[in-house]
Write a structure and sequence with these properties.
Layout: H1 11-14, E1 22-23, E2 30-31, E3 39-43, H2 44-50, H3 55-60, E4 65-68, E5 81-84, E6 99-103, E7 106-108, E8 120-127, H4 131-134, E9 141-147, E10 156-164, E11 168-180, E12 184-195, E13 199-200, E14 206-207, E15 210-224, E16 227-240, E17 246-249, E18 261-263, E19 266-268, E20 276-277, H5 300-304, E21 324-340, E22 343-361, E23 370-373, E24 376-388, E25 395-410, E26 416-419, E27 439-441, E28 451-467, E29 470-485, E30 497-512, E31 518-529, E32 532-533, H6 535-538, H7 542-551, E33 558-559, E34 562-575, E35 580-602, H8 608-613, E36 631-633, E37 639-641, E38 644-666, E39 671-686, H9 693-696, E40 712-724, E41 727-738, E42 741-742, E43 749-751, E44 754-765, E45 768-775, E46 783-790, E47 805-811, E48 816-824
Parallel strand pairs: 6-9, 20-43
Antiparallel strand pairs: 1-2, 3-8, 4-5, 6-7, 8-9, 10-11, 10-48, 11-12, 12-15, 13-14, 15-16, 16-21, 17-47, 18-19, 21-22, 22-23, 22-24, 23-26, 24-25, 25-28, 26-27, 28-29, 29-30, 30-31, 31-34, 32-33, 34-35, 35-38, 36-37, 38-39, 39-40, 40-41, 41-44, 42-43, 44-45, 45-48, 46-47
């Protein structure tokens, strides 16, 4: 959501084919055309004209960048993911994200969740490793939101009212002005986003309700012309209902059985899964109810079992007593800049805090099978000092240092769970009559997902003009990334695992300007993500370790850091008397030590705490004691081993190459067109993924495409300006294409391609801009995205969990018509 600021922008101005955009992707002012990096930049006016409300809208206008609320496996706005150039991750913690969000150059932990495009000057989407300037989690790229500085000379304000037929409503207001003219100014903005869910569950509840309330405040102090200090505070509150979601069971929608496929491990006969296109809403089969549905009401039996017992909460997480999500976020930053002649010194200090919790129907179906609660608390602090030297000569430089700390505490892995249908049958079954009843698991291992990070970085960059048309840029960051995990993060006195990942991350760019309207460059860069620990394996006793190693002898206690070696060739060109501009980037990435997630069935040993708590499998009344294997009563009443599914990590490799093309052209004085095109060719070189082995028959993914990333994607946006009785008017058409994408690493099931069409038309008169719009004009009903997920609607059999799989899906929003009014005062 963004608003138009005074002075009002006329339709004739929008039709101009070119506007110079200044970007700060390399911590200095450069034009978008001259910077030798693949960047997509959007001004405030661009965002307004496109009707962009969030990062998903920005992604639809950007080649090589993907963003969905279902960032990984689970639908909803809980854990999102910024994805660049096919670099996907299956990791839950934001510590291992391959892309990052920044606000005014300051890292925002878990920043993609419900971020508002409000009070912005521009958005920069920077592709490729950005470690030298931005630091951690910019492995594949970064999004930098540049906020507006308050006006030091005059008061002004803007607002927006957006209403739609499906009650997807948005209201915002922005005011700014001087407190002390020319020296001290403020701005204050607020937003209410209220989206009514478009889907009705079988039990009558709505799916897809979303609400966000945001307040931003800024103070800008300029005591002398050479010094500016900007203090910014932001608070947001999210209150969402059950997510709009569905689960397509591989058991019911099996299209694999009877097929033989070729793999690097030889011919295989997959079964009980989807081979080919994932069924759509009309053809998908369900156990009961309908496909886009889930339980929106917590059964009394679950409440009685203690599912919402506040004693099991992560400290600080909001209390949740119904299906849905609560999240509170606070961000505070201070940025100071001092000009010393040709030099400038910049200091930034920031803190982010976020507390969230949700209860969800974990099986995502109408069966009352599995509920979970997933509390999450995180905070981070960052400090950066940067000195920029003179920028007017042949030799230019900058240097700096930063320090970053982060704590992430989350239950993850299903959270506190209640399973209503547990079967102890040792043979695969889908029959609910084999269930033994409800089981409460409220002792989820917090150490599985919790982590702490401390990062110290020193960075520098030099530019040297070898010739008037040839420039060499050399950049680098010396970084030490300390990762801490283990039960000690949440249980004082327990074990903590700690390791440091130290490296030098360079980038070299050779830029050639043979003509004033031509910019060619070649770059090489490296990225790094901290390694990780196999926590369950580390904590295993000798008997348990033998079970792990019997399933894969390569398993180790820790994983090395992920690395990326990235080559890029770029061509930026202006044509037709500066009425056309395009940017072409070719890239080749070598990705090493990918954290590949697998699951092993382990018969664990009872520990003292488990015996004391009488957790499942460790009940003294049934004969278990400290040091004995976990057992439960079988179908005949006699005790049988209890196998639990434990996640482990194995390193893998991949190669990703492709191209990105973006263009803008003023066809006439009143017709402008923007296009994007992305092609991403990714393939695993070595990657073990055993979640699908029981259904696919193989676990080596060599040659398979990275999941949840289309090979082809693109967009076309056209704006026609005209006058109606002297009133500046406009019509804009946006067409976005998403090619097919695979649901998981096996490439057995794929999500069908789809095309979204948005249309908007309106007029501008003085301080008002009025627009009627249609989103998803053709009422496309494809799946927006989807991912493999275990089938928890079938009776829960822990040792056979990976033999029951399906696809968790998020539907596209339905066609919606609305009216939007922007005004300034």
């Amino acid at each position: 959501m963004t608003v138009v600021h005074a002075p009002a922008v006329t339709a004739q101005e929008v039709a101009e084919p070119m506007q110079e955009i200044t970007v700060t992707a390399r911590k200095r002012d450069e034009t978008l055309f001259e910077v030798p990096v693949a960047i997509s930049a959007f001004t405030e006016k661009d965002l307004v004209n496109a009707g962009a409300k969030g990062l998903d809208d920005v992604a639809s206008l950007t080649a090589g960048f993907q963003f969905f609320n279902q960032g990984n496996q689970v639908p909803g706005r809980y854990n999102t993911q910024l994805q660049f150039r096919g670099l996907t991750t299956a990791q839950f913690s934001p510590s291992f994200a391959t892309g990052a969000l920044f606000i005014d150059g300051i890292y925002v932990l878990n920043g993609g969740t419900s971020i508002s495009l409000m009070d912005l000057e521009r958005v920069e989407v920077i592709k490729g490793p950005q470690a030298a300037y931005f630091g951690r989690n910019t492995f594949g790229g970064a999004v930098n939101l540049i906020t507006r500085d308050p006006d030091l000379t005059e008061f002004s304000g803007t607002g927006e009212i957006a209403l739609s037929g499906r009650q997807n409503n948005d209201f915002s207001v922005f005011v700014e002005g001087p407190l002390i003219e020319d020296r001290l100014a403020f701005s204050l903005s607020g937003r209410l986003y209220d989206k009514r869910g478009q889907w009705t569950a079988t039990d009558g509840g709505r799916l897809g309700d979303e609400e966000t309330r945001t307040v931003n405040g800024v103070l800008l102090w300029r005591p002398i012309d050479a010094l500016s200090v900007k203090l910014r505070y932001a608070y947001s509150q999210d209150r969402d209902g059950p997510a709009a979601q569905g689960f397509i069971s591989g058991i019911l929608n099996d299209s694999c059985s009877g097929l033989t496929i070729d793999t690097v491990q030889g011919p295989r006969q997959p079964r009980r899964y989807i081979c080919g296109r994932v069924p759509d809403m009309d053809s998908a089969r369900v156990f009961t109810g309908k496909i886009v549905s889930s339980n929106t009401i917590i059964p009394d039996s679950v409440i009685a079992a203690g599912q919402i017992n506040p004693a099991t909460l992560v400290a600080g997480a909001p209390q949740v007593t119904e299906v849905g999500m609560k999240r509170n976020t606070e961000r505070l930053s201070l940025a100071a800049n001092y000009e010393l002649g040709d030099y400038s010194l910049a200091l930034t200090v920031a803190r982010n805090e976020q507390q969230a919790n949700w209860i969800r129907d974990y099986d995502m179906t109408d069966r009352v099978s599995f509920f979970s609660r997933d509390p999450q608390v995180m905070d981070d602090k960052s400090y950066e000092l940067r000195l920029v030297g003179p920028q007017g000569g042949r030799f230019r430089w900058l240097a700096g240092a930063n320090y970053y700390t982060q704590e992430f505490i989350s239950s993850g892995g299903g959270g506190d769970t209640t399973i209503s249908c547990v079967s102890t049958s040792t043979t695969l079954t889908d029959d609910p009559s084999t269930c033994t009843g409800q089981v409460l698991l409220n002792s989820n291992n917090l150490s599985q997902s919790a982590d702490q990070t401390k990062v110290v970085g020193y960075f520098a960059a030099v530019d040297f003009d070898i010739l008037e048309t040839l420039t060499l840029s050399v950049e680098g960051r010396l970084q030490s990334d300390e990762l801490t995990k283990g039960a000690g993060l949440v249980n004082p006195g327990a074990t903590r695992l700690r390791e440091s990942f130290d490296d030098f991350l360079p980038r070299a760019i050779l830029r050639w300007r043979p003509l004033p309207d031509t910019n060619l460059y070649l770059s090489y860069s490296e990225g790094q993500i901290a390694g990780d620990f196999n926590t369950f394996f580390i904590n295993a006793d000798a008997r348990e370790r033998a079970q792990y190693l019997a399933q894969d002898a390569r398993l180790s206690e820790s994983l090395p850091a992920e690395t990326l070696e990235a080559w890029e060739i770029g061509w930026k060109q202006r044509l037709l008397d500066d009425r056309m501009e395009f940017s072409l980037a070719l890239f080749h990435n070598t990705w090493k030590n990918i954290k590949g997630r697998s699951a092993y069935a382990i018969n664990e040993t009872c520990r003292a705490a488990e015996i004391a708590a009488r957790t499942i499998g460790c009940n003294p009344a049934q004969g278990q004691a400290i040091g004995t294997p976990k057992q439960v009563p079988g179908p005949t009443g006699s005790l049988i081993p209890l196998f639990l599914t434990r996640s482990v990590l194995l390193p893998g490799d991949a190669t990703i190459k492709g191209l990105e093309l973006e263009s803008r052209i003023g066809v006439t004085d009143n017709l402008s067109v923007q296009t994007t095109l992305a092609y991403i060719d990714s393939a695993y070189d070595d990657y073990i993924f055993n979640f699908v082995e029981p259904i696919a028959g193989f676990n080596q993914m060599k040659g398979k495409q990275t999941p949840r990333q289309p090979r082809w994607s693109g967009s076309v946006s056209a704006t026609q300006n005209f006058q109606v009785r002297g009133v500046e008017s406009f019509v804009r058409l946006d067409v976005n294409y998403q090619g097919k994408s695979f649901a998981d690493e096996s490439n057995l099931a794929y999500m069908a391609a789809y095309t979204l069409v948005n249309l908007r038309a309106g007029f501008e008169m003085g301080r008002y801009r009025v627009e009627a719009y249609a989103r998803n004009l053709t009422d496309e009903d494809a799946w927006m995205t989807g991912a493999r997920f275990s089938d928890f609607s079938s009776p829960f059999q822990a040792p056979l969990l990976s033999a029951k799989q399906g696809i968790a899906v998020s539907p596209l929003d339905k066609r919606d018509f609305g009216l939007r009014v922007n005004f300034s005062f």
